[in-house]
Design goal:
Layout: H1 3-25, H2 39-48, E1 53-55, H3 56-61, H4 68-75, H5 92-103, H6 105-117, H7 122-138, E2 146-150, E3 161-164, E4 167-171, H8 181-185, H9 190-193, H10 201-209, H11 223-240, H12 246-250, H13 254-273, H14 282-289, H15 306-321, H16 327-332, H17 336-343
Parallel strand pairs: 1-2, 2-4
Antiparallel strand pairs: 3-4
Length: 349
């Protein structure tokens, strides 16, 4: 081998190793699209951000119960009408409701434990500063919501994070850790409570709330529509947290994520063989999209929501093979079959 050829081979190897290391440093093997935003692009956005977190549960419990009307009137300047309506402090019935809330043993215990487990939310501010910097890169005209924490009493009918107008609400009693005693007491399955961890809080703010500012829901005529919709939600969230572990983005344990990575081809081929994609069967939709300990008819080692995982892979493939499509444009596409066809998603058995 000539000397020049040797030098070229060595340089090529060095470059290859350098690229591999770079990908490892930013979160592992993935497409370039997610990491094409440079830190220097985000720095001025991040510096201009102002993340405001208002802890309603602490403020309301700090009130003098002997003079609630005066205290609530003062809080009205901080909190929106959905929490404190104008003039409610003059309504005896409302004051009685607040007293009942403050004296409820369950609420008192929850607030005490929230203050113990989550005495400050500095970790959340840090996570949200990073995520909202990405968000404003993609949506420069979007406003940053005011963030309000609440303790409603482990109400699973209400999302742990949701938007109301321009306020982002976070139910802190759903982030006290998988082993928190009240979750078992109230019969919450472990496959749900395992995501009741503060590491998911910022992720949930985008996956369960912010994304709905931009995503178009469509008609949901079949299972494929649900699969692609969930895939777009997760993909959107991943774009805001490109440095987070993939299992955290979707909310799987490392073991469940490994199973999904290894066997999603089999799950997909099973759905194809059973002609499930273009059916509108509630049972199948719940099985592949809804909360469950595993995905039937696969083993107990499989994670639930495998349809969402597959949808995420399809959307990833679509965006990788259609680089002219922006994130915002993706969220507005309602033709699920077109996304599938253009994704080139053909997982191995």
């Amino acid at each position: 081998m000539k000397k020049r050829t040797i030098i070229i081979v060595v340089l090529s190897a060095i470059i290859t190793v350098g690229v591999a290391i770079a990908f490892l440093l930013i979160g592992g093997k993935d497409t370039e699209r997610k990491y094409e935003i440079k830190h220097k692009q985000l720095t001025p956005i991040k510096e201009a951000l102002q993340i405001n977190i208002h802890r309603y549960e602490q403020d309301i419990f700090a009130l003098d119960t002997a003079n609630l009307s005066t205290g609530i009137k003062k809080l009205h300047t901080t909190y929106p009408e959905i929490l404190i309506e104008t003039g409610c402090w003059e309504n005896p019935r409302y004051i009685q409701q607040i007293k009942a809330y403050l004296s409820d043993p369950l609420i008192q215990e929850l607030v005490k434990d929230v203050n113990t487990h989550l005495p400050d939310l500095d970790f959340l501010v840090s996570d949200l500063e990073n995520a909202f910097a990405y968000y404003q890169h993609y949506y420069p005209d979007a406003t940053i919501p005011e963030i309000i924490t609440i303790v409603p009493g482990i109400d699973l009918q209400t999302s742990s994070a949701f938007l109301y107008e321009n306020d982002l609400f976070i139910n802190l009693d759903q982030y006290l850790g998988a082993d928190y005693r009240a979750y078992d007491k109230y019969g919450i399955p472990r496959y749900i409570s395992e995501r009741f961890d503060k590491k998911y809080m910022a992720i949930d703010c985008f996956k369960k709330a912010i994304v709905f500012r931009h995503i178009v829901e469509g008609k949901f005529e079949n299972l494929l529509d649900f699969i692609i919709f969930e895939g777009k939600r997760i993909y959107f969230t991943e774009m805001m947290f490109p440095y987070k572990l993939k299992e955290e983005i979707i909310g799987y344990s490392p073991e469940k994520y490994k199973w999904a990575e290894r066997y999603h081809g089999e799950v997909w081929n099973y759905m194809i063989s059973k002609n499930l994609l273009f059916e509108n069967n509630d049972k199948d939709i719940a099985n592949y999209i809804g909360e469950s300990p595993f995905t039937k008819p696969f083993t107990n080692e499989s994670p639930g929501r495998m349809g969402a995982f597959i949808g995420w892979n399809i959307v990833n493939g679509f965006m990788e093979n259609n680089k002219e499509v922006s994130l915002d444009s993706l969220l507005k596409i309602t033709d699920s079959r077109a996304i599938l066809n253009r994704s080139q998603y053909k997982p191995m058995r």
